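We emphasize that the prediction below concerns an isolated chain of 346 residues; any contacts that depend on oligomerization or on bound cofactors are therefore not represented. The input was used exactly as deposited, without trimming of termini.
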Amino acid sequence: MGFASKGFQLRPARSDDFRFAWSLYEELMRQLTIELLGRWNDPGQKQVVELAVTHPGTSIVVKDELDAGWLHVVESPDAIYLGQLYLAPSFQNRGIGTAILRELTDRARRGSKTLTLDVMKNNRSRMLYERLGFHVIGQSEYKLKMQWQETSPSEAMFEHGDSSFISIQSQRLVLRRFTERDLPTFVGYRSCPEVALYQSWGNYTINDARTFLKEMNEIHPAMPGKWFQFAVEHKEKGQHIGDCALMIEAGDPEQARIGYTVAPQYQSQGFATEAVGRLLGYVFGTLEKHRVIATLDVLNRSSVRVVEKLGMRREGHFIESAFFKGRWCDEYMHAILRREWKMGRI
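Result of the prediction step, given as a token string:
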């Protein structure tokens, strides 16, 4: 399996990888096992890992020249079985597991093979498997057996969103999933009164941010009715500078709503326009949606300039349409169609 384009690689496991494989396995599985079985058999679990590491179907996941995880795959002429897939916590929620599973589902599709796995009943990884098309086909006392069943791309996207999303880029920016390391800057600019002035939050705390991150880790872009927020990163500096938000209308999934925030020290430098422009490209180009809407407080003149610069037309002015932070406010509604966005780039 080749993943260089995804930013990580797989290499065959060696016998001297046991220490790493065991340490990660114990870190991820000990508590889950005790919760479910009420015990942890150290010698027995070590034997499982020893057998896996010496098996030719076991690979080590390498990211940024660091061992990030390991997986064990058994393949026969008519079937693929994913025996284990473990990623270190610092490398989770970065699209690595999704990319590996996508490769396995593609291989199963091309070879007309079944693809199955087992997952402990209390393991949250089940949520990822379900999003990628795995369904429960059997169970034991402690585990579920799941099998991948192919759905059309449009069906999968409508139900589960863009589960393969890792990041998108513009000239100066990267729009990606939020990670734990973003939380200090996220709280920093959300706590700034001038940033919060036209936003729904007030006193934003680190606990609010942790709850937010947990919610973002459980969804994907383009899940109907769910606001997904992209962290905006400055490419050259490698710094988190803001976020963009996207929500596909649950009742009309051909239409989407967007929002955005930029930290004060990065405002008035074209970053909001660049980030929102790239988000529109993703919505119209990758997701192929018909119409995008932005609703803004009329007093938020800088944000109004951003959307109008990108070609979004003002379609409405709603008078005292929202009671917001102790006052009735007017709102503008701006929108743009996919064909208008495409014409603007000819």
